[in-house]
Amino acid sequence: MQRIINFSGGKTSAYMTIHMYKPDDLVIFTDTGREHPKTYKFINDFEAYENIPVIRIKYYDSEKPFDLLLEKRKHKVIPNRVKRFCTSELKIKTCKRYLRSIGIRKFENYIGFRADEKRRVLNRTTRYVNVHDKFPLYDQGITKDIINDYWSKKPYNLEIPPILGNCTLCFMKGKNAIMAILSVYPELA
C-alpha cells in the first residue's frame, strides 16, 4: 500500500519524515498560502540536507490558496473554531484530489501527532474507507522535548518562534496568542 507522509513544514513532521522515510514514500506539503516565509526556507533546507523530495501542492494550484477558498465561500462563514474548514479544504481534500489525479486511491496516511498530543490523536476521525491513518510519533512516545532536542543538534532549523507556528495568525492559536503575535509582527495583519 502506498505510504503518504504529511509534511506540514514544521519540525515535528520533518522529524517524522526523516525517521520514517522510504524511497517509495510520497512526502506531501499542502500549502495554505498562509505559512510563514521561513517555513518555505525550512522546507528547502530540509530537501537539501536530508535529500528527501517534498511534493508541494496548493488548493486548485492557486498562488493564494486561503484567499481563493474564502472567495469560493463568499457570503458564508470564514474558518473558525466551530467550522474549521480551512484544514479540510486546503490540506486534506487538496491532498486527496492530488493523489487521485496520480492514480492513488488507497494509502497509509502518516501524520505527525506526538505522544504529548493524545487529544489530537483520539479526536482524529478518518471519513475515508481507503485511508489508513498512522501516528508513528505518538506510538513511539516522541514528545515536543525530544523533537526540540533533535533539532538543536542539526545544522539547520525552522527559524520562527514557536508561537507563530506555520500558519500565521491561525484562529486555533487563540485570541491572546494572536494579540501577542501582532504586537511583535504587526505586518502579519
Based on the model shown, name its key terms.
about 190 residues, alpha/beta, 5-stranded parallel sheet, 8 helices, 5 strands, globular
End-to-end distance? 43 Å
User: Beta-strand level of the residues, as a percent range?
Assistant: 5-15%
Helix content: 40-55%
In which order are the strands of the major sheet placed? 3-2-1-4-5
Using only C-alpha atoms, the radius of gyration works out to: 17 Å
Order of helices and strands: EHEHEHHEHEHHH
What shape does the CA trace take? globular
The description of the largest β-sheet is:
5 strands, parallel
**Could you report the average pLDDT, rounded to the nearest whole number?**
91
SS summary, helix count? 8
- Content-based structural category: alpha/beta
Spans of at least 5 consecutive residues whose pLDDT stays below 50 are none
Please tally the β strands and state the result: 5
Provide structural commentary.
The chain contains 8 helices and 5 strands. By secondary structure, it is of the alpha/beta class. Strands 3-2-1-4-5 form a 5-stranded parallel beta sheet, with helices on both faces. Helices cover 41% and strands 12% of the residues. α1 links the parallel β1 and β2. It is globular, with a radius of gyration of 17 Å. The protein has helices spanning 11-20, 37-50, 65-72, 85-101, 118-123, 136-139, 144-152, 175-184; strands spanning 2-6, 26-31, 55-58, 107-110, 131-134. The mean pLDDT is 91.
